[in-house]
Specification:
The protein contains twelve helices and 14 strands. By secondary structure, it is of the alpha/beta class. The protein has two domains: 211 residues, Aspartate Aminotransferase, domain 2, CATH 3.40.640; 112 residues, Alpha-Beta Complex (Aspartate Aminotransferase, domain 1). The structure holds pyridoxal-5'-phosphate.
């Protein structure tokens, strides 16, 4: 008997947009015989600094390294407190613990998935040395409200490169900001990260600690350098950022229009915000059933955030909104190469989901 060799075509949760520009950029670096951090990384540094209206950029090996370096450059150390949202990436927790500080975990605004300024305010103490503000899923947090507390802010733009508030770019509000070029990000280098700032002392320190070699004195430094191979991919992607974002926004618009009559809670775009839709996250009390149903029909999904920070460390905070987001979020495929027929398939499945 003939075996059924038909392979079921899956729509993955994330699919990269890589083409001739990335191939050419990598080939150029390989042909140069120089893979260490060099001119390509420097061009990427200038590009990301320009994008975020900051004076300088320091390329590093990941977003996590960028957070670590940013905390070091702000002088955060053991005994200090750093405020982070419970509903965020574990990278934030790791970075705070790397410098020996105490993470103070606060709740989010459920309508945006972003850190809630009022919760930040309630948790500020004399020991608070920094607030890490991740802009979640392409939508900026209420950074203007958080700036009023006059505590140094590390803007975490890992999920929101290209996002804006009142025309001002993500990364331009904090004393320092970071980016990630991990494989699933809006623009990728495979791996990679960036610290940007306009404060010379912060930039100098970030540049100093990312590399231990050829130094005249000894302090603890790291190997957080970014190879020009990764930088070349990220730079080729950076040039396409506007078109990547436009395509994501068009898909988001289509989803929002088509799903308006369903019971799903859809992402909203508050006035004055430019949402880049690095993720399109809907909420439903049947999140697990929905994810299984979509998977059974060949559609991959994510959860936005898989584990809250409060699930990793002890905290007395109650964090109801973060917990609800963790229970209810379903992240749908959204990327420039998602075809019209794939979008339609996803929409039809969602409309037919029996909740
Ligand atoms: C908000 C946020 N910050 C930081 C990071 C860490 O970036 P990386 O994976 O490049 O270390 C991530 C990673 O997903 C993230 O989502």
């Amino acid at each position: 008997m003939l075996k059924n060799t038909m392979v079921k075509k899956i729509i993955p949760h994330v699919r990269l947009t890589l083409g001739p520009a990335e191939l050419e950029a990598v080939a150029k670096v390989l042909k140069s015989g120089y893979l260490a951090p060099g001119l390509v990384g420097e061009t990427l540094e200038r590009g990301i600094a320009r994008l975020s209206n900051q004076k300088s950029g320091v390329a590093v090996s990941s977003g996590t390294a960028a957070l670590h370096v940013a905390l070091l450059a702000l002088g955060v150390k053991a005994g200090d407190e750093v405020i982070i949202p419970a509903y965020s990436c574990q990278a934030l927790l790791n970075a705070v613990l790397y410098v020996g500080a105490r993470p103070v975990v606060v709740d989010i605004d459920l309508s945006t998935f972003n850190i809630d300024p009022q919760e930040v305010q309630k948790n500020i103490t004399k020991k608070t040395k920094a607030i890490i503000v991740p802009h979640m899923f392409g939508l900026m947090a209420d950074i203007v409200a958080i700036k009023r507390f006059s505590i140094p802010i590390i803007e975490d733009c890992a999920l929101s490169i290209g996002a804006k508030f009142k025309g001002q770019p993500a990364g331009s509000f904090g004393v320092v900001a970071i980016f990630s070029f991990y494989a699933t990000k809006t623009i990728t280098g495979g791996e990679g990260g960036m610290v940007v700032s306009s404060v010379e002392a912060i930039v100098d320190q970030a540049r100093d600690v990312r590399e231990y070699d050829k130094k005249k004195n000894f302090i603890i430094r790291y190997n957080y350098k970014l190879s020009d191979v990764n930088a070349a991919i990220a730079l080729a992607q950076l040039k396409q950022l506007p078109s990547f974002v436009t395509k994501r926004q068009a898909i988001a618009k289509k989803y929002t229009k088509a799903l308006a009559g369903t019971n799903f809670i859809l992402p909203t775009v508050p006035v004055d915000y430019h949402h880049t839709f690095s993720r399109y996250i809907i909420r439903t009390p049947q999140a697990e059933q929905l994810r299984t149903y979509l998977k059974d029909h060949g559609v991959g999904t994510g959860r936005g955030v898989v584990l809250g920070i409060h699930e990793l460390i002890k905290t007395k905070a109650s964090l109801p909104k973060s917990k609800q987001a963790l229970r209810e979020a379903v992240s749908l495929p959204i990327y420039p190469t998602l075809t019209a027929s794939e979008q339609q398939k996803i929409i039809t499945l969602l409309i037919n989901f029996k909740s």
